[in-house]
Automatic annotation (TrEMBL):
Keywords: Transferase. This is Acetyltransferase (GNAT) family protein. Residues 146-270 form the BioF2-like acetyltransferase domain. It holds the Pfam family Acetyltransf_6. It comes from Pseudonocardia hierapolitana. One of its GO terms (molecular function) is transferase activity. The keyword Repeat does not apply.
Length: 336
């Protein structure tokens, strides 16, 4: 099934990133989904985006889209029975994928079994996000922050105001400054961000928080999305010229504090980059693994190999130049 301008929430998804309305916002007309049905009911689903890169067909995930499933309904019963059903449904999803030369996607953390992908010739790499699992007690969450983060928050709160009335344009302005400072190419367009903002606002599924000083300067601004259970830190950043103010710590803490009132958990959506991992971990978040699965046909592997090696080396080198307070502008690359 290929994508269309659908608006309804669907139950066959672990996160907002797998919703049809999200996919249409970030990859209009380019996404599709593989479905498995039993007796007229959907029991397995795997969304994807089809792209042409270097003359080959790639199934992947869009920008600003951290996870793409798969969603599997295994039913009830003994563990072995449920595992057999999971293997069968996942194998059927894989077999029904459209033809591709390369497949690259991050599975949702809820998926802890990638054996059917392995049996089908895929590779997997373990990656990590960081998550605060229980937001029921804000005081306990605050006490779980590393002492220097609490100090950053206290200091910044004396000179900055956290505002919620700014929009995605202010976040993009800061975000682009961070990309420019790091010498990195922008990984998603302003038009994509505006489409996503519009779709999220229509569903009351996003918030923008910004730390602003008395002169009206925006020190940090971040874009958060949320569903019924979790708030996700999606993209943003801190002004490179104002990094010493502690604004990133203040904005992230304020987002966590607000999430304590509406969400069960808070997900930082990363990171594998060492300075960003250190920043996320300092909020007391738990390391949560997820699988990045891939398969590349031999004729496409040569084309991608040199490109990916150069891109990774450049990204890691640039990331290590950043200080611990500065956060990734996008929550890392998400387009596979």
């Amino acid at each position: 099934m290929t994508g269309a301008g659908v608006t309804d929430e669907i139950p066959w998804a672990h996160t907002p990133f797998e919703q049809r309305w999200w996919l249409e916002a970030v990859a209009p007309g380019q996404w599709g989904e593989t479905l498995v049905e039993r007796q007229g009911k959907i029991v397995a689903r795997l969304p994807w985006v089809r792209r042409r890169k270097l003359g080959v067909t790639v199934l992947t995930q869009p920008p600003l889209t951290r996870f793409v499933g798969p969603w599997i309904q295994t039913g009830e019963g003994k563990y072995e029975t449920r595992l057999v059903a999971e293997h069968e449904l996942m194998a059927e999803l894989i077999a029904r994928l459209p033809r591709f030369d390369s497949y690259r996607a991050s599975l949702a953390p809820a998926i802890t079994n990638w054996l059917p992908f392995y049996w089908a010739g895929f590779d997997a790499t373990v990656r990590y996000t960081y998550r605060l699992d229980d937001l029921s007690d804000p005081d306990r969450v605050w006490n779980g922050l590393r002492s220097n983060i609490r100090n950053h928050v206290r200091r910044a709160s004396r000179q900055l105001e956290v505002r919620t009335d700014l929009g995605v344009d202010e976040v993009l302005t800061i975000n682009r400054k961070v990309f420019a400072r790091q010498g990195l190419p922008v990984s998603f367009s302003d038009a994509l961000a505006h489409r996503l903002d519009h779709a999220c606002r229509a569903r009351r599924a996003r918030s923008v928080l910004a730390a602003v000083d008395a002169d009206g300067r925006v020190h940090a601004a971040w874009f958060f999305v949320h569903d019924a259970t979790t708030t996700y830190l999606l993209f943003g950043g801190g002004d490179p010229e104002l990094r010493s103010s502690g604004a990133n710590s203040l904005v992230v803490w304020e987002a966590i504090r607000r999430a304590c009132e509406t969400s069960q958990s808070f997900d930082f959506l990363g990171s594998m980059i060492e300075p960003i991992e250190r920043f996320n971990r300092a909020f007391g978040a738990r390391q949560v693994p997820y699988f990045f699965v891939s398969r590349t046909r031999p004729h496409a592997r040569l084309l991608f190999g040199a490109r990916d090696a150069a891109r990774l080396a450049r990204a890691l080198t640039d990331a290590r130049r950043r200080g611990g307070e500065e956060s990734t502008p996008t929550g890392e690359g998400t387009s596979g």
